[in-house]
Amino acid sequence: MNIEHQGIGMTSQRSRNRLVEQLRTMGIQSELILDAIKNTPRHLFIDEALASRAYDNTALPIGFNQTISQPYIVARMTEALIAGGKPLKKVLEIGTGCGYQTVVLARFAEQVYTIERIQGLLSRARERFYSLKCRNIKAMNSDGNLGWPEQAPFDGILVTAAPVGVPAQLLEQLAVDGRLVIPVGTAGAQKLLLLTRTEDGISEKYLDAVSFVPMLGGTN
Which of 14, 35, 124, 220 is deepest in the core (most CB within 10 A)? Predict the structure, then answer.
């Protein structure tokens, strides 16, 4: 890892280790997830002016009225996605944003397909994927509500913006035994859900109360 990726001062390994211990006390149990958080340089995904806060357990602005998710939420959602124990060959992410969650996911899936509706965010994220040598990520500028039907079915789907209800097309693109982690609801009343496709249908489990930007349609 080069010096830029390692970080110094408030972006140093000490700051990352402190964040990991905080996540552990908050209930994140998977050492694999904690190791991924510790070794993913979050300071590279935000504006340099905010770098000193990169390893605080908080959401931060990334432009375009979007945010980088709180590390706890990234860890919680990723942990829920991998908890089924099934190898993740293909994972779909809706809402690339700055690409931080994408890079964490890429540690656990053979291939990550990620969709971002805002072209400006996607261009920056692609540069980060290249810089970090993440070669198992394919990114597309598209409407996340539609998913990526050409690559379905997916072993896991993770959504980083909140629709009012679960988009039917995402459920249709989930493989049997596949897991969908998604925030659902309106502002101030969102819940994080885990939906699992079985031979008999869809099972649903409540995970957490959350606050995400709303999931919008179209592209720009």
Answer: 124
For the full predicted model, state whether its pTM sits above 0.70. yes
Instruction: Name residue, tokens 């409540």.
Output: 206
Q: Say if 217 falls within a structural domain.
A: no
216 falls within a domain? no
Residue 218 forms part of a structural domain: no
Q: Is the residue at 215 inside a domain?
A: no
What CATH number is associated with residue 34?
A: 3.40.50.150
Beta pairing class for 109-116 and 137-141: parallel
Specify the length of the chain in residues.
220
Helix pair angle (31-38, 71-82), 10° resolution: 140
Rounded-to-integer distance, Cα 156 and Cα 181, Å: 8
Confirm whether 69 is a catalytic residue: yes
With beta carbons less than 8 A apart as the criterion, state whether 57 and 25 touch: no
Nearest to 180 by CA among 85, 77, 28: 77
What total of structural domains would you count in the chain?
A: 1
- Of the candidates 52, 69, 131, 211, the residue annotated as catalytic is 69
- Structural domain that includes position 8: 3-210
Residue 71 main-chain phi, psi, to 5 deg: -55, -35
